[in-house]
Amino acid sequence: MVQLTEVADEHFQQAQPGPEEDEDFTDTDSEISEESDYDPESETLTDRLYALRDVISPTTRGYISAKVGAVSSAVGTALSFGGKTLWVVGSSALLLGVPWALAWAEEQQVIEMEKEMKMREMGSEMLTAGGEQSGSATAAQVGAALGQDAKPAL
């Protein structure tokens, strides 16, 4: 049969030094030391925030760090994708849109020139027709071209 024997550790048998036995002990919670080199004016906001890291538990800090990392990664990916998309759209607009716009403007100029030529032909026909007929016939042609009855100015 197995017999259990309790063995006492020597380390726990010795007396542990406490506040009464330690000569260098000072109660810093109840006294403000005048010898401190702490200067609150030289402390920055970053130093203060860094000192607060111990207030939050390590598991919570890890969770927050993981979430911040995931969000920053997602934002970086979105910005990268957006920049590449803008590059493709911008270069496509320059390579395809500018020549199309120039061709369209040229086509509009041709259309305007054709209208102007038709108006000149109509005007020259009216002037040549006016020489052969009386002035009232020319006024009738001008009125017909405008789509209304022409009346004398007097």
UniProtKB/TrEMBL annotation:
<keyword id="KW-0812">Transmembrane</keyword>
<keyword id="KW-1000">Mitochondrion outer membrane</keyword>
<feature type="region of interest" description="Disordered">
    <location>
        <begin position="1"/>
        <end position="44"/>
    </location>
</feature>
<keyword id="KW-0472">Membrane</keyword>
<dbReference type="InterPro" id="IPR005683">
    <property type="entry name" value="Tom22"/>
</dbReference>
<feature type="compositionally biased region" description="Acidic residues">
    <location>
        <begin position="19"/>
        <end position="44"/>
    </location>
</feature>
<keyword id="KW-0496">Mitochondrion</keyword>
<keyword id="KW-0811">Translocation</keyword>
<comment type="similarity">
    <text>Belongs to the Tom22 family.</text>
</comment>
<keyword id="KW-1133">Transmembrane helix</keyword>
<keyword id="KW-0675">Receptor</keyword>
<dbReference type="Pfam" id="PF04281">
    <property type="entry name" value="Tom22"/>
</dbReference>
<keyword id="KW-0813">Transport</keyword>
<dbReference type="GO" id="GO:0006886">
    <property type="term" value="P:intracellular protein transport"/>
</dbReference>
<protein>
    <recommendedName>
        <fullName>Mitochondrial import receptor subunit tom22</fullName>
    </recommendedName>
</protein>
<dbReference type="GO" id="GO:0005741">
    <property type="term" value="C:mitochondrial outer membrane"/>
</dbReference>
<keyword id="KW-0653">Protein transport</keyword>
<feature type="region of interest" description="Disordered">
    <location>
        <begin position="127"/>
        <end position="154"/>
    </location>
</feature>
